[in-house]
Write a structure and sequence with these properties.
With about 270 residues, the protein is of the alpha/beta class. The protein has twelve helices and nine strands. The protein is about 50% helix and about 15% strand. Helix 2 crosses helix 4, helix 2 packs parallel to helix 12 and helix 11 runs antiparallel to helix 12.
Amino acid sequence: MNRIDATFERQRAAGRTVLIPYVTAGDPSLAATAGIMDALVEAGADVIELGVPFSDPMADGPTIQRASERALAQGVGLRDVLDLVARFRRRDAVTPIVLMGYANPIEAMGITAFVDRARAAGVDGVIVVDYPPEEAAEFAGLLRARDMAPIFLVAPTTPDARIERIARLAAGYVYYVSLKGVTGAGHLDTAEVSRKLDQIRRRVALPVGVGFGIRDAESARAIAAHAEAVVIGSRIIIEIEAGPPSEAAFRAGAFVGTIRHALDTRNAKVVA
């Protein structure tokens, strides 16, 4: 069983919401990212989304753009990210790693070469923001053939026909973008999120994670009432930015620990 599927099954059985933090590989450095990943797991992360730095991240707000710029300034590229995952996998054989990025670095490496190297490194899923499902069947097939999950974004404006296409291609989970805009922007409308999740679930059997507007324990708890997973990224990067690189792992882990506690406290009340 893919590590992503196993994680969702295990947490579902335990009545827990899956927590998926996002960080950009190479920010503030590759060595620091390795420590951050370990700290996130220690703090209760179930899956880690690892951003591949890119010069034109169209879906990312200013916070994640700054993280990509810092990583790119150090020359961090896709090969470095895959090496980072391989080193993590030697320390941790359980926690799923999902790469999140854009098509250009993958196509520059070569799609088949990328999926082979990702599989060898221990990647469990891939989100390519600018691969629409209408053009991603071959790529999704290559991933699935190597037991990696093609994960797709669903937006508030995604029509039913596209959701149905995603349902035929996707594995692992579906990532619902809760806001119209870029990462880290806007106000979260949980009632609207709930309505959209109902629409998605009528067409998609996979778990649904929600991200793009979760900033704190309160918003994480609100989303956990409706989604199988909570995804949080920009706020973690803000925490990393707020201190020196030597404190990055501690600061990221401490913040994610507050989210884990909030989710578990809510889940315990629901079960009781």
